[in-house]
Amino acid sequence: MADSTFVSHEASVRLMAFAIILALLVLWERRAAIPAARSSPARRWSSNYGMGLLDTLVLRLIFPAGAVTAAMVAARQHMGLFNQLPFTGSGELVVSVLLLDLTIYVQHRLFHALPWLWRIHRVHHADPEIDVSTALRFHPLESVLSMLLKTGAVVSFGMSPSAVLAFEIVLNAAAMFNHTNVSLPPRWERWIRFAIVTPDMHRLHHSTHIANANRNFAFCVPWWDRLLGSYRAPDSASLPSSIGLPDAPFAPEHVRLPWLLLMPFRR
Question: What value does the mean pLDDT take over residues 96-113?
């Protein structure tokens, strides 16, 4: 499919992929969820899904087609490394997806390391439980900063629009999958997490224990954690018994959307 046709339907393609994957993961959770009930599911879900909807509206307002548009501009203007090389097709797609995944890994580490970014990212970690809805719980400021970083990477490397759209779909799917409130069978999980980030691997990152919360930053593939020294294998001893902010106990306002929107600006 030509890029022009593919990108013209970008919003529809992403929405369809998102809806199908979300529905499948919600059904999986209903059948195999790990028990957790520290807060009202209705209030948590309304806040988390509300945050996801707000993020989408803000991004569509500021970046009508996001990083895909940046890729189209870069291609027309012959900007970026890949547009200076005979590098196209499946090879370019795979390399672009991996580079964007590495970009998101670096971004995630920065949001934990820099205090002013952590104030924004805290909104995601303040969720007292973790399920597929947590994957949508990012403050709009974080979503805007993430889009700016992705756009910079897309233009710098001259990634193709189809590769960027593929990554956006993969990232969305991976984030929902690794936040799902389920555990894979242990005999499969330890092999699967060599290729993709599993729910157990990411659940450790949401622990209230700071040593675990500063591990397993990857979203799609786990290789960046393994290569860059931030990997910790989930096991019976490390899987968290408590989910939430490392430096604050659960509070009722952590599941209230208006309070969460103001959270980065509160002391």
Answer: 97
Main-chain phi, psi angles of 178, to 5 degrees: -80, -10
Per the structure block, which two tokens stand in for 214?
A: 């500063």
Beta partners for residue 243, in sequence order: 207
Place of tokens 């993430």: 146
Q: Are 218 and 174 in contact (CB under 8 A)?
A: no
What dihedral do alpha carbons 100, 166, 223, 140 form, nearest 10°? 60
Per-residue pLDDT for 69 more than 50?
Answer: yes
- Contact by Cβ (8 Å): 239, 203: yes
Mean of pLDDT values over 183-194: 89
Q: What is the pLDDT of residue 4?
A: 53
Closest to 88 in 3D by CA, of 150, 155, 161: 161
- Find, among 41, 214, 197, 54, the residue nearest to 125 by Cα: 214
Question: How far, in whole angstroms, is CA 103 from its chain's centroid?
Answer: 12
| C-alpha to C-alpha distance for 167 and 97, rounded to whole angstroms | 5
For residue 241, how far is the Cα from the chain centroid? Answer: 23
Q: Left (φ > 0), alpha (ψ -120 to 50) or beta: where does 89 sit?
A: left
239: how many CB neighbours lie within 10 A of its CB?
15
CB 139 within 8 A of CB 118: no
Whole-prediction pTM value?
Answer: 0.91
* Cβ(200)–Cβ(216) below 8 Å: no
Token pair, residue 215, equals 């591990």
Phi then psi for residue 243, to 5 deg, are -110, 140
Whether residue 217 contacts residue 108, with contact meaning beta carbons closer than 8 Å, is answered with: yes
Beta bridge partners of 207: 243
- pLDDT tens for residues 52-64? 999 999 998 888 7
List the structure tokens of 189: 């999980």
Could you tell me if 218 and 68 are in contact, meaning their C-beta atoms sit under 8 angstroms apart? no
